[in-house]
Specification:
Length: about 425
């Protein structure tokens, strides 16, 4: 075999690692031994060629390099995954903090956009006293400040509709507390209530539950005196803080790509997207099919049945009294207004329900000393959509009547 003795020794040493020589057990050579010798010769020749060309150990180096590459790739993937989770956690925390501080429209757009409107009015017309209208959708779609025809001049009031859908007196009280704490400074407040809303009972866990996703930590502290010891609202807030992407998704899409929202979400968002500069939202009668109207009227019948059976709830009474007390503490003139209802709906109430309204009105006047404006009875059925929501034309008629009959004299007396 060619090569120097030193090179051959090196080759044999390399060979011994791969294919160890076995001693023959006897002195007779057989076919198996010959095959082994031939195999050894081939291996030695192959190893010799590797050593001669410098490729010995190449396979091992390739394997080690492959393993190192895979290890680095796995480490890089883990780092990338960790960075992704970290960024997601940071964005989630930022969204949670923003929704409760600088970007409340991601949490409760119906309130937040009205707050911006009011703050703009106060900044641009500081010489005009602000009058806030509070209440449910009855007020939101029934009081049109633009139809009251107050002139845009110093001293003339700016009536702003701060109505909030599905708001019993407790939620109206919360809305006022929010607004005052956010720096709104009204000269007067009008609280609109309906008979069905005043019989709404239950603690804050029940009354505020439909709007739980819009509550902040400060709201829970405001509602604490009205709670019955339950933890439902706190759990809902914790869920919203941990997973704001799910809870706030509709609001986020509304900010980024409003046309991509579902139809039901678009309809609900009318309460802030289609309001005028005074907060009024017209009822969309053009989308009111007869089947939908009948559903709304059946809802009114159900409310009338409940109203006939129940008294004014303790929680609603307490919220009204607390709202009046907060206004007086802030030096704000306040009045309670019974919302208008159609002849058909008034006819569904039993005499005892009408009697409760009269009795409670007198109680508020005598015990609280607050002005209470009665509901009108002269508006026709066609002025209403479902018995308690006014049509756009009905809202304009009612607003002009209310301003001329009650609001102007009341504000003039308050200035004396």
């Amino acid at each position: 075999m060619p090569g120097s003795p030193r090179l051959n020794s090196l080759i044999l040493g390399q060979l011994s690692r791969v294919f160890p020589f076995r001693e023959r057990r006897d002195g007779f050579g057989d076919a198996r031994s010959l095959e082994s010798d031939a195999s050894r010769e081939r291996v030695v020749a192959a190893r010799y060629q590797e050593v001669k060309t410098g490729t010995a150990g190449g396979s091992s180096r390739t394997l080690r390099a492959t393993r190192a590459a895979l290890t680095n790739r796995g480490r890089s993937a883990r780092i990338a995954l960790g960075i992704g989770f970290g960024l997601f956690a940071v964005l989630t925390g930022a969204l949670t903090i923003a929704s409760e501080t600088v970007k409340p429209e991601l949490r409760d757009p119906e309130y937040a956009y009205r707050l911006k409107h009011v703050q703009k009015w106060q900044a641009e017309r500081p010489e005009r006293p602000l009058v806030l209208v509070l209440g449910s959708s009855r007020a939101q779609m029934g009081v049109s400040p633009a139809a009251m025809n107050f002139p845009d001049e110093p001293g003339a009031p700016v009536v702003y509709n701060f109505g909030y859908r599905a708001a019993p007196p407790l939620v109206s009280w919360l809305t006022l507390a929010r607004a005052l704490d956010d720096g709104v400074k009204p000269r007067a407040v009008l609280l609109f209530v309906g008979q069905a809303e005043t019989v709404t009972g239950g603690p804050a866990e029940v009354q505020a539950w439909p709007r739980r996703d819009g509550l902040s930590g400060a709201d829970l502290r405001r509602l604490a005196p009205y709670e019955a010891g339950g933890t439902e609202l706190r759990r809902a807030l914790r869920t919203a803080r941990i997973n704001p992407w799910s809870v706030r998704w509709d609001a986020i899409v509304g900010e980024v790509a409003p046309d991509m929202r579902a139809g039901s979400v678009k309809f609900e968002s009318r309460s802030w997207e289609e309001m005028d500069s005074f907060g009024f939202v017209r009822f969309p009668v053009e989308h009111l099919w007869e089947t939908k109207r009948e559903i709304l009227r059946e809802n009114a019948r159900a409310q009338a049945r409940v109203t006939n059976r129940k008294d004014i709830s303790d929680v609603s009474d307490r919220a009204i009294r607390d709202l009046v007390a907060r206004c007086r503490m802030e030096g704000i003139t306040v009045a309670v207004v019974w919302a208008p209802e159609s002849p058909w709906l008034r006819g569904l109430y039993c005499p005892c329900a009408h009697g409760r309204v009269e009795y409670y009105t007198q109680t508020l006047v005598d015990e609280v000393g607050v002005t209470v404006f009665p509901a009108p009875t002269h508006f026709a059925e066609e002025d209403f959509v479902d018995g308690y929501h006014l049509t756009p034309d009905g809202a304009a008629k009612y607003s002009r009547w209310f301003a001329d009959t009650h609001l102007r004299p009341w504000l003039a007396k308050a200035r004396e």
